[in-house]
Each structure stands twice: as structure tokens, then as C-alpha cells.
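It is worth pausing here to work through a concrete case rather than discussing structure prediction in the abstract. The textbook approach is simple: state the sequence, then state the predicted structure, then interpret. We follow exactly that order.
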Amino acid sequence: MDEANWYVVHTYSGYENKVKVNIDKTVENRNMGDQILEVLVPMEDVVEMKNGVRKESSRKMFPGYVLVKMVMTDEAWYVVRNTRGVTGFVGPGSKPVPLTYQEIRSLGIVLPEGMEEPPKQRIHFAGKVGDRALITGGSFSGTEGVISIINDSKQTVTINAELFGRETPFEVGFEDVRIIN
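Step two, the predicted structure:
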């Protein structure tokens, strides 16, 4: 079975809770609990001051959107896409795009144990402070300078290069630097 991911579904504004209930009912009726695992309408607690009175309430974080954790199969896609109040998945064209781990975490969705962000491949940087280096990626690609800081934990290098007649530090990832000594 494929991996379940979080997807963002666009709904008519004000229909978020109805869409959640309708998807949950369809999942139960069609026995699709293994394909559509969870439906969320993200809420946030807010404090409002009205006439000098402090009032706590909940409101939708993203009006017009619902989050669905599902295994993207034709059947699951069809069920969600054809739920009353749903206008479509968020993504280019008709292809839904799953949320990244960073996006999921920033929404406050707790990842279950064992589903942490996959570890990034660590890069060993062969240069040292004082080496001349060329920035090979990003906005300043082609800029030459001298390495002043190597940060292994962040996987970045600070390169001092001359820009507009002044020495300017550029922090770039290991993969965007080439030693030119």
C-alpha cells in the first residue's frame, strides 16, 4: 500500500465542517478507513477585546480549506473530489500536491512516532577557512570569495566576497559552493 499524505482540499467558504462530516460519513459507509485516514478543519484559539471585555473563541485557521490525510488512490481522490462543497484539491492542474513535513509541522499537526522528517543526507565539506570558493547556486551564482565560517550543523559556509566595493558575507549551503584554490 502507498504512503498516506496530507492534502489540502478547497471548499466553499463556510462549508468546511459540512465537508468534513460528509467525507467522514462516506469513509464509514464505503469502508475506506484504510485510504482516507483523517479529515481536519484546522482551528486556532483567539482572544478578542470587545467593549473592554476579553473574549476567547476558536476560529478557522484557513477559511475555505480542509486538510485530508489519505492514500492517493483513484477511488479516494474521486470520493473527496466529489463531496458536496468541495471545489478541488490544491495543486497545479488536477494533480494534488501533498504537504511537506515542514508545512505539516508549521500547521501544528503532530506527526505520529516513527513519521518524523526523513533525515537529510549529510554533506562532508572538504574546504577550510581561508580557501577561495565559488558560489555555484542561488542568486549570487558565479561570485568568488574567501571562506570565513564553516557551519557543519547547518551545512552552510559563509563566504566573504566583494560586492559594490565592499566585503559582503554570503551564507550558502555546502552543495552551492566549489573550492577554487
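Step three, interpretation. DSSP finds three helices and eleven strands in the chain. The longest strand covers residues 43-50.
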